Amino acid sequence: MFYYRNLYNVFFDEYPREATDFIALSGYVGIEPIAALSGIPLNSKIIYGLFKENQQPQLHNQLIRLHSETRRILYPEILCHSKCYLWLRNNVPIKGLIGSANFSSNGLLNDYRESLLAVDRNQLYALKGYIELIQDSAVPCDEYVVHSVPRTREVYDRDICEMVLYDPVTGQTQLSHGLNWGLAEGSHVRPNDACIPIRVEHIRRYPQLFPPLQKNPERTRGSLNEVIEIVWDDGVVMQGRLEGSQPVDNIKYPKQFASFPHKDDMGHYFRHRLGMSIGQRILREDLIRYGRDTVSVSLLEEGMYLFDFSV
To answer: Is the pTM of this model over 0.90?
Structure first.
């Protein structure tokens, strides 16, 4: 079997029911898929192949929280960009996949961009041997100490985008977009829907944060909205999506960050942090009273963003 759509379902709906164990060896990993493994009756191991090349304390802390006896997260000494997946029954391999998709929301929820191929049965033990080679060099995430390196001002300017939460033209929050998107009249929105607009200057100054849109190969018009993961400074994790379309130098880029699959997750989150009621309009004054009217956006790894709204 060759998969390039609905990869998430392959792991959480179509896994072999006779399996007792699951192993994921992935260059990068995501918080949401690892958390979702708690709903699968399997003992799981997740080997984060490139962690030692990308030691992010915020992500490390989230992974420690998810680590358990039945869902072990490992950091290998051998740096590994491979994406290999194996299901076993009592240590006997019964199904394997290899390909380009990381075990992350970004890798599993963006159709066409990544693919996975089923491994021939006569190669399953070879796949198992390779995974065990990497695994034998690994330590559990809760035994590893991450030493964070302070950012210099130069690195901060280059890698962290300060995104305003109001309209810079009016100096006030938008009436029916941005944090108040859900208050738009006559639109197909829910009262607390919210988004963070991506402006042209953001794209030009921070191209590594805002990838161009991918064309939908099954339609003559339209682009694919990329699913991502958002880790907030207070430890809250939510799935998000790069939505909309805007041209920058004749290339289409996303227009806003929104939560996914429910746009009001972000609206609820902001109102909670601001100490406001659900459904209440957010004004610039509310942000100033809180102590901040911007969000600092940076990459933790491919497809995973850190949003800092701390005061």
So the answer is: no
